[in-house]
From TrEMBL:
Protein name per its UniProtKB record: TonB-dependent receptor
Domain TonB-dependent receptor plug: from-to ranges: 52-156
Similarity-based family: Belongs to the TonB-dependent receptor family.
Domain TonB-dependent receptor-like beta-barrel: 233-671
């Protein structure tokens, strides 16, 4: 859709009148289509005149192609201020951190691919679990992103941030082969077949393997494939997409620091080499859009089936000194859903207005269980012999959960004056859920339902001298694990004096922002934000699950800049500073939530950001360098110390175009061989018989760390045909 003749510059973009559910239809028009001149840099479209907030944007495919990334999920770090890391290796969902939030595996960042939700509610391992391993990087065509609860089309998990990954409709015929020093090999092949009637068929497949420099090697293997049939555009056309993925390997979870310092394991080792993962996923999705002079319609449907098995031993010998504390978490999930929205544009004298009405629905049928294992073998004493599976610390559980999330929304944008527009949105979500035990003789554990009304809106002033000012406020939410809401499963959700966790935990946010491009070749965005949650999501390492916690607040400032001094180079920087606190008084935190000593929030970073340089069309040369930054953070609720140090890591790509269809690329990761933890926690473990005898089930409180991959290199050859 975007016609660009060079890496940087000004191009004409045909903006459809449809309002996509990804919040990408920001242009306003009084006709069916309007040719709008926008500035395109390697990193983002200039959203002046179209954005709802200063922190909203679109990342182009050009940056995604140039950005040096070790794993596919790190492509989301193109979203300003977002850090994507891991704490268990390649086979699990990434860790997401933004605006002072540790979003664990996806509690408050809603990720979508081709309108399909990636997050999994009531997941076996973490609420909102968002595993992107099934996707292939060459199929990205761009990322639309939002921050804050100000967008009526975005519901569950999207209150802090959301990403909508767009797929290519045209993939150049190519083979991409790479090999690296950490036992990583990857082979991708794909291309496009054109039918005589204008239809296009994309076929792509990938085989991948990663050892990761760990001891023992992770031996993570991946197979993925995609078929995509399309015609026209998203605004006026249709597509049908099928995807398949299977991955498996070892997990190297966070390990006790004393085991590393004492030489029991090296810094890339593990106390339980049988930890691991297996995942499989297939999906079918479709999209249809039609545009007329004053209206547009967009609809999509999807069907997803996924399975997941995780083996994790976080506490080692703390609870079961004889067999160890390894647990197996299983999930089999089927998801069906879709959305439709209609957009109407009208002009009344000099006032232009656009109204979008939308309907979304998602249904999940989810089997989840949790078993105590040793070396991946389920232990028999989960059952006491009389059918009681709920004995002991490691209670075996197995649940059949159904969930339905129905969302209805409306949003109106009115341009009252050339320098004044307002955006008003309303959203109503109604979630229902049931929980049945597979093991109990009385299987029905309960049902729950909750509606939530969410008003939201923005006022935008400008542009004046290429400057716009924004004020936004709104209400959003995240859902909680149904088992915790019903208190039907030990160690899930919360068992606090304050009562059970809400099914929908609401949040209220405010943001003041500025967007400026008055200086030639420089674009600036700045935002000051505050966001309150009625219930914080926290990761419980002992349970390997997320739990609902006390009310919380984030306050901070976010700055972004893109500068293109020459046509072949861009410098960009994004940084967010945040203050994260529980805002109940100390007595309430201690008595109701068990948080003593203060209001600090565990694993909430004070700084996130990145700085980079992108180069293209410098003769045959291209590439990029990026510094990834994660600031320090408290490791326990309540007090400032102990504290995780965070990290700063630099990655580098250097590429050379040998011919128009043949290019070679060298990637260097962790360029300065930083010895820092990509994730860090603080909790109690027992790691040997002496500690068991001395400390028993109290264990030894210690830093638990998962280190960044060491200095490594990867060579990639891309051949077109």
């Amino acid at each position: 859709m975007f016609r660009r003749s060079s890496f940087l510059g000004v191009v004409a973009v045909v903006v459809p009148s449809a309002a996509a559910p990804s919040a990408n239809a920001w242009a306003q028009s009084s006709s069916a289509q309007e040719t709008v001149t926008v500035t395109v840099t390697a990193s983002r479209l200039d959203m002046m005149g179209r954005a709802i907030t200063a922190s909203q944007g679109t990342v182009t495919k050009k940056e995604l192609d140039l950005r040096p990334v070790y794993r596919v999920g790190q492509l989301l770090e193109a979203v300003p201020g977002l850090v994507v890391t891991v704490h268990s290796g390649e086979g699990k969902a990434n860790q997401y951190l933004i605006r002072g939030y540790n979003l664990d595996h996806g509690t408050d960042i809603a990720n979508f691919i081709d309108d399909m939700p990636v997050n999994r509610p009531t997941n076996a391992h973490g609420q909102g679990y968002s595993d992107l391993n099934f996707f292939m990087a060459p199929l990205f065509s761009g990322i639309d992103y939002t921050k804050g609860p100000y967008f009526a089309s975005i519901g569950d998990f999207g209150a802090v941030a959301s990403t909508h990954i767009r797929l290519l409709d045209e993939l150049p015929n190519q083979i991409i082969a790479s090999a690296g020093t950490l036992g990583d090999e990857d082979l991708f092949a794909g291309g496009t077949y054109h039918f005589t009637n204008g239809m296009r068929l994309i076929a792509a497949g990938e085989l991948g393997h990663v050892d990761g420099g760990t001891t023992p090697p992770q031996n993570f293997r991946k197979i993925a494939s995609t078929l995509r049939l399309s015609q026209g555009t998203d605004a006026d056309g249709y597509s049908l997409t099928g995807m398949y993925y299977k991955g498996q390997g070892r997990n190297i979870t966070d390990q006790p620091l004393r085991a590393i310092d004492g030489g029991v394991i090296d810094r890339f080792g593990t106390l339980d080499p049988t930890d691991g993962s297996q995942s499989e996923r297939w999906s079918v999705s479709s999209h249809y859009g039609v545009t007329s002079e004053h209206w547009a319609l967009s609809s999509s449907l999807y069907l997803i089936h996924s399975t997941m098995v995780l083996w994790n031993n976080f506490t080692h010998l703390l609870d079961d000194p004889l067999n160890g504390d390894q647990e197996q978490q299983d999930e089999t999930r089927s998801t069906a859903g879709g959305q439709t929205n209609a957009t109407y544009r009208r002009a009344f004298w000099n006032i232009r207005t656009e109204t979008t009405l939308g309907l979304q629905d998602r249904f999940d049928d989810d089997y989840i269980d949790r078993r105590h294992t040793r070396d991946r073998v389920v232990l028999p004493y989960c059952n006491d012999g009389n059918g009681d599976y709920s004995i002991g610390v490691y209670a075996c559980t197995a649940d059949r959960v159904t969930l339905n999330d129905l969302g209805l929304y409306g949003q109106n944008t009115t341009r009252w004056l050339p320098w004044l527009r307002t955006v008003a949105g309303l959203r109503e979500d109604y979630q229902t859920a049931t929980d049945r035990s597979v093991l109990s003789t009385n299987p029905f554990l309960g049902s729950v339902h909750q509606p939530l009304f969410q008003p939201k809106g923005s006022i935008v002033i400008g542009p004046w001298r290429e400057t716009e000012l924004y004020y936004s406020a709104g209400k959003g939410f995240h859902s909680d694990d149904v088992r915790g809401v019903l208190q039907s499963v030990p160690l899930e959700g919360t068992q606090l004096n304050a009562g059970r966790a809400p099914l929908l935990a609401s949040t209220f946010g405010q943001e003041i922002g500025l967007r400026n491009s008055s200086i030639p070749h420089l674009q600036l965005q700045a935002a000051i934000f505050r966001q309150d949650f009625t219930s914080e999501q926290q990761y419980d390492q002992d349970a390997g699950q997320d739990v609902a916690q006390a009310p919380s607040r984030r306050e901070g400032v976010e700055l972004s800049a893109q500068w293109r001094p020459r046509h072949w180079i861009e410098l960009n920087g994004d940084v967010a500073f945040a203050k994260a606190r529980y805002f109940e008084n100390a007595a309430t935190l201690a008595s109701t939530y068990g948080i003593a000593g203060g209001a600090y929030i565990a694993n909430a970073p004070n700084v996130t950001g990145s700085f980079g340089i992108l180069v293209d069309d410098l003769g045959p040369w291209f590439g990029g360098v990026e510094q990834r930054i994660l600031g320090s953070y408290p490791l326990t609720d309540g007090v400032k110390y102990p504290r995780g140090k965070g990290y700063s890591e630099t990655n580098l790509d250097v590429g050379y175009k040998l011919t128009p269809k043949l290019k070679l690329q060298l990637s260097i990761y962790n360029l300065f061989n930083t010895h820092a933890a990509s994730a860090e926690y603080y909790y109690a473990t027992d790691i040997n018989a002496a500690e068991v005898a001395k400390y028993g089930t109290s264990g030894v409180s210690d830093y638990q760390v998962h280190y960044l991959e060491p200095l490594s290199a990867r060579l990639t050859l891309t051949a077109g045909f």
